[in-house]
Write a structure and sequence with these properties.
The protein is an all-alpha fold and about 80 residues long. The chain has three helices and no strands. Helix content is about 55%, strand content about 0%. Helix 2 runs antiparallel to helix 3.
């Protein structure tokens, strides 16, 4: 699942966050994935409309911290 708004191939063929963002969101519990994708999209869109030059960095940092705090880890015998 990808956020509606994020830094992607349409923004730069060289740098594309789509794969990384998708991989991060996939580490979250399924019940959180849509909510986090929508929140990421809101953060990224708000910052880019404010012409924040670090919008991509700040949105990705928020996502990384959210995933670190909430990610599902495979534990032997649980799945």
């Amino acid at each position: 699942m990808l956020p509606k708004h994020h830094y992607s191939a349409k923004d730069s063929a060289t740098f594309n966050d789509s794969e990384w963002i998708g991989g991060q969101i996939d580490q979250l519990p399924i019940s959180m994935q849509k909510k986090v994708a929508v929140k990421y999209s809101d953060i990224y869109l708000k910052l880019t409309t404010e012409e924040d030059k670090k919008a991509r960095y700040r949105a990705n940092t928020w996502l990384r911290k959210t995933v670190d705090k909430n990610k599902v880890t495979n534990k032997v015998g649980l799945f």
